[in-house]
DNA sequence: TAGACGTGGGT
DNA sequence: TACCCAAGTCT
């Protein structure tokens, strides 16, 4: 397949291709908040948010985040709890913890300036090959490839590259192609145009080839193979986990919440007491009771079920049976285990799954009157 | 290298 | 319902 790729590269008029692509981008690019200036910090924030996330979803988060943390210094000095709160609902929460960690690194060791060196910027937490290339090209005009899913889709079609883009090893094939094609006059627009083309024209299903500014350069269009490319093997189906959870209140009406561990799923986010249901055990209420007694040294009374929730992650599904109940006593309040009022709870960051549990609780209360 | 890591939207 | 998809990175 490498031979074929080199062959297609030789068929391309690179100057014309760059010109057609960039002219189209200049005319058709969307107005996006992170395109207003070239502040490397803002470009960086936007690129992290955009990872595996739609533009429409990111826009309000980007604006709120930049408002709260407008500079490297501001983010560097912010409390993690506030930073997580600004990310609440965006998903892949390790992104923002890595971002803050990397921003601190830049603040302390790079005089507060995002490094313009490929090796230095790539050493920052959460900055992989795509993000490094995106920041270097967009903020600094350095001709480095920024290969994301769009770029692989677009170039697989233009150059007839049949490598499986689901495999990590394929990325370097596309990086080599970009290095051969990229405009050294305007690497920023070149990279952004490739991605914009993938988002607006060269879409995964039913691409708009008739509107494509680089149609004449596209091997897939010539061959009629645009619906077969890119090659992407499918993932295995994920597992389901049964969860029992409870919204518990003490006599004053305060809610018992718990901070998750600093590694793994939903790291450092807050949650309502819950545990995985082990089949070969007693009933689920008793299992939750045991967990709460062991982990929080609390005595609780679990009452009615308030709802059943299915929450789908990318790699697993939680089927949650949610209850309400009371906290009779608790020996160990701590930095990770707290009793808080509904108002105080708003300052804590919860995953969407646990927000759903609380919504069930509210609905149940309203229904009871 | 493949699986972990979120969420919401589309078919 | 059950996939797949969206500007990836880490382990």
UniProtKB/TrEMBL annotation:
EC assignment: 3.2.2.31
InterPro entries documented for this protein: A/G_AdeGlyc_MutY, DNA_glycosylase, Endonuclease3_FeS-loop_motif, HhH-GPD_domain, HhH_base_excis_C, HhH_motif, MIG/MutY, MutY_C
Residue span(s) of domain HhH-GPD: 49-200
Catalytic activity entry: Hydrolyzes free adenine bases from 7,8-dihydro-8-oxoguanine:adenine mismatched double-stranded DNA, leaving an apurinic site
Cofactor(s) the protein requires to work: [4Fe-4S] cluster
Function: Adenine glycosylase active on G-A mispairs.
Organism: Cytobacillus eiseniae
Pfam families registered for this protein in UniProt: HHH (PF00633), HhH-GPD (PF00730), NUDIX_4 (PF14815)
Keywords, ordered alphabetically: 4Fe-4S, DNA damage, DNA repair, Glycosidase, Hydrolase, Iron, Iron-sulfur, Metal-binding
Cofactor note text: Binds 1 [4Fe-4S] cluster.
Enzyme class: hydrolase
Recorded family membership: Belongs to the Nth/MutY family.
One MF annotation (Gene Ontology) recorded for this entry: hydrolase activity, acting on glycosyl bonds
Protein name from the UniProt record: Adenine DNA glycosylase
């Amino acid at each position: 397949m490498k031979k074929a790729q080199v062959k297609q590269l030789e068929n391309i008029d690179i100057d014309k291709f760059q010109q057609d692509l960039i002219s189209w981008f200049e005319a058709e690019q969307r107005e996006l908040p992170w395109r207003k200036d070239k502040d490397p910090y803002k470009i960086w924030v936007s690129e992290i948010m955009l990872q595996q996330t739609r533009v429409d979803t990111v826009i309000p988060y980007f604006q709120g985040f930049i408002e709260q943390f407008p500079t490297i210094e501001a983010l560097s000095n912010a409390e993690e709890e506030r930073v997580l709160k600004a990310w609440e609902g965006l998903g892949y929460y390790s992104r923002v913890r890595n971002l803050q960690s990397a921003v601190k690194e830049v603040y302390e060791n790079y005089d507060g300036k995002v490094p313009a060196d490929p090796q230095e910027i790539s050493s920052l937490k959460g900055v992989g090959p795509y993000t490094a290339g995106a920041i270097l090209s967009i903020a600094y005009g350095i001709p480095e490839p920024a290969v994301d899913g769009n770029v692989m889709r677009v170039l697989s079609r233009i150059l007839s590259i049949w490598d499986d883009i689901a495999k990590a090893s394929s990325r370097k094939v596309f990086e080599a192609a970009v290095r051969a094609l990229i405009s050294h006059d305007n690497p920023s627009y070149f990279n952004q145009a490739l991605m914009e083309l993938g988002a607006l024209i060269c879409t995964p299903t039913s691409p708009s080839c008739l509107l494509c500014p680089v149609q004449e350069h596209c091997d897939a269009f010539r061959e009629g193979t645009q619906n077969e490319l890119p090659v992407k093997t499918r993932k295995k189906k994920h597992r389901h986990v049964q969860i029992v959870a409870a919204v518990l209140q003490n006599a004053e009406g305060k809610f018992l919440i718990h901070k998750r561990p600093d590694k793994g799923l939903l790291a450092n986010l807050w949650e309502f007491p819950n545990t995985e249901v082990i089949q070969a055990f007693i009933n689920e209420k008793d299992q939750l009771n045991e967990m709460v007694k062991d982990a929080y040294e609390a005595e609780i009374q679990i009452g009615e079920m308030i709802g059943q929730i299915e929450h789908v992650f990318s790699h697993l599904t939680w089927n949650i049976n949610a209850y309400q109940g009371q906290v009779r006593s608790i020996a160990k309040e701590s930095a990770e285990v707290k009793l808080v009022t509904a108002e105080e709870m708003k300052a804590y960051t919860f995953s969407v799954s646990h927000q759903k549990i609380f919504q069930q609780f509210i609905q149940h209360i309203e229904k009871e009157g």
